[in-house]
């Protein structure tokens, strides 16, 4: 299974995924492409260091979102990509991308969805005063963090937490949850039944 990761920022999830898939030689799954809308982002450096091919683009050089999404689809097809992982990709994806990849595009979000979708989920959770939050991996359906949920893990909020301290613990969880989810998909254990995702464990 050839996988493309879309990211805009630091790319710690990108790196965790590359390293985890390389370490487990089990199912044939590899990160074959990074798609990044911020050519200066740290994730682009990580891709270079890890020898992962990258498509770096600047949205402002295109007349519309549709125009760059069409180009992305062409790159994905050229590379034979079968799964897209959004990991800190800070742009909405539209039907140009979602329609051809529905059921083959996942996202990781730093909260227990459907709580705290959108930007600054960790700040939202602190602001709300919840006692637990966490991370969610879900299929992308064109809404904002709204698609069918594949996996979630909870993180306790501590009295003394700041956004930074809480983000650190959520990220540590993400770095396990995302590779686990990708492996389950690569092994063909994940299926969507309308709103619900079934995960077949064991055997
Ligand atoms: C992660 O917390 C992810 O949940 C969110 O964006 C962050 C990306 O972090 N969608 P990184 O770039 O992988 O370090």
Report on the structure:
The chain is of the alpha/beta class and 203 residues long. The chain has one domain: 3-Layer(aba) Sandwich (Rossmann fold), CATH 3.40.50.170. Helix content is 36%, strand content 24%. The protein is built from 6 helices and 9 strands; from the N terminus they run βαβαβαβαβαββαββ. A 7-stranded mixed sheet has the order 3-2-1-4-5-6-7, with helices on both faces. Strands 8-9 form a two-stranded antiparallel sheet. α1 packs parallel to α6. The model has no long low-confidence stretch (mean pLDDT 96). 5-O-phosphono-beta-D-ribofuranosylamine binds next to α1, β5 and α6.
Comma- or semicolon-separated keywords:
36% helix, single chain, alpha/beta, two-stranded antiparallel sheet, binds 5-O-phosphono-beta-D-ribofuranosylamine, Formyl_transf_N, purine biosynthesis, globular, Phosphoribosylglycinamide formyltransferase, GART, transferase, 203 residues
């Amino acid at each position: 299974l050839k996988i493309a990761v879309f990211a805009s920022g630091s790319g710690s999830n990108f790196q965790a995924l590359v390293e985890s898939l390389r370490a487990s030689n089990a199912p044939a799954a590899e990160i074959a492409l990074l798609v990044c809308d911020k050519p200066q982002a740290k994730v682009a450096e990580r891709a270079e260091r890890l020898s992962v091919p990258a498509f770096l683009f600047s949205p402002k050089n295109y007349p519309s979102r549709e125009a760059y999404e069409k180009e992305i689809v062409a790159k994905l097809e050229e590379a034979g990509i079968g799964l897209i992982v959004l990991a800190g990709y800070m742009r909405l994806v539209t039907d140009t991308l979602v329609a051809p990849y529905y059921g083959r595009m996942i996202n990781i979000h730093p909260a227990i969805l459907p709580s705290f979708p959108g930007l600054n989920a960790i700040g939202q959770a602190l602001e709300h005063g919840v006692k637990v939050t966490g991370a969610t991996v879900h299929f992308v359906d064109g809404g904002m963090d709204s698609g069918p949920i594949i996996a979630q893990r909870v993180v306790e909020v501590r009295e003394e937490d700041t956004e930074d301290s809480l983000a650190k613990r959520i990220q540590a969880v993400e770095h396990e949850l995302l590779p686990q989810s990708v492996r389950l998909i690569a092994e063909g254990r994940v299926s969507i039944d309308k709103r619900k995702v079934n995960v077949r464990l064991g055997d």
